[in-house]
Amino acid sequence: MSSSFKEIQIQHQKHYSNIPSFPFPSVLSPNPFSSSTLSFFTDSIIAQKPFLDSLLLKTGAILFRGFDVNTAKDFNDVVEAFGFEELPYVGGAAPRTNVVGRVFTANESPPDQKIPFHHEMAQVPEFPSKLFFFCEVEPGSGGETPIVLSHVVYERMKERYPDFVEKIEEHGLIYTRVLGEEDDPSSPIGRGWKSTFLTNDKSVAEQRAAKLGMTLEWFEDGVKTIMGPIPAIKYDKSRNRKIWFNSMVAAYTGWKDARNDPVKAVTFGDGQPLPGDIIHDCLKILEEESLAIPWQKGDVLLIDNWAVLHARRSFNPPRRVLASLCK
């Protein structure tokens, strides 16, 4: 173990007995003989990047706990220290606000709403490979960010529903979403088309949508976006395994607001409707295999978006969790 970080065990972690065995997620805190200051933390990240990269490859997620990360700017410094390239948030569904530098609010949907399991931006071709979360204000209660290993979900679904998995591997999925002009903060998918495509110009939105492989159908007060067919299962080359890389459960169970009917939000790539019973069983598998560590102020969670799906539980305010996306 490197000198600046101490790997610790905490409640709620899962332990996988694969060879080699590993805890999920890894939890790193300051070594008792070193400092916990922000500058020491960022210097340690830069100096020990190969160690952190190999740990992330092995476990899929790292929680940094006990370091002096107090503000959005501190968090931005931590993200910058890793040296990953920034990914602009184009095409994602969640309403978010830029806070400072590369830091955004996490999904701003109302506290009483859960956000279902998903890989970040799995419904568009350009998605982040890494994402960071930072707890600036601890939740009053609830508000955890559950995580689950994607290849485990794939293996369980393949075992239970081989025909269904074969069909989505062959045909992919189509995602359909209706956007208003402006953001709707009452909806978990309430990002309006102007902020989705980072423009007020419909022709620029058309160009950016086309670049994503997305078709737009305009209405008087909004637009329908049609994405796909897009793969639902991907191959993670770095770990040599198939992963459950889609927003199927999130769309089918959670893409609901005044404009959207979740059952119509996602279909097989050939346009056929999905079987609701299998989707709800998949949700059970996601819940069974997941874990949720309660947030503490100053926590920084680094997730490999190729390896891990995440969600959000409902909460009692206050809670402020910030995010940053990396290519």
Give the helix/strand class: alpha+beta
- Give me the side-by-side strand order of the main sheet: 1-4-5-18-9-21-7-6
CATH topology of the largest domain: Double-stranded beta-helix
The CATH architecture designation of the largest domain is 4-Layer Sandwich
Q: With helices defined by DSSP (H or I, 4 residues minimum), what is the helix count?
A: 10
Measured as a percent range, the helix fraction is: 25-40%
CATH class categorisation of the largest domain: Alpha Beta
The total domain count is: 2
What characteristic shape results from the CA principal axes?
A: globular
Task: Write down the overall mean pLDDT.
Answer: 94
InterPro entries: AlphaKG_dependent_hydroxylases (IPR050411), TauD-like_sf (IPR042098), TauD/TfdA-like (IPR003819)
Domain TauD/TfdA-like: 47-322
Pfam families: TauD
GO molecular function: oxidoreductase activity
Provide a brief overview of the structure:
This protein has 327 residues and is an alpha+beta fold. The protein is 28% helix and 28% strand.
Structure description:
Pfam families: TauD. GO terms for molecular function: oxidoreductase activity. This is TauD/TfdA-like domain-containing protein. Keywords: Oxidoreductase. There is one protein chain. The protein is of the alpha+beta class and 327 residues long. The chain folds into 2 domains: 152 residues, Double-stranded beta-helix, CATH 3.60.130; 138 residues, Clavaminate synthase-like (Double-stranded beta-helix). The protein is 28% helix and 28% strand. The protein contains 10 helices and 21 strands. The strands form 6 sheets. Strands 1-4-5-18-9-21-7-6 form an 8-stranded mixed β-sheet, with helices on one face. A 4-stranded antiparallel β-sheet has the order 13-14-12-17. Strands 8-19-11 form a 3-stranded antiparallel β-sheet. β13 and β14 form a beta hairpin. α1 runs parallel beside α3, α4 packs across α5 and α8 crosses α10. The longest helix is centred in the C-terminal third of the chain and has 14 residues. The radius of gyration is 19 Å and the shape is globular.
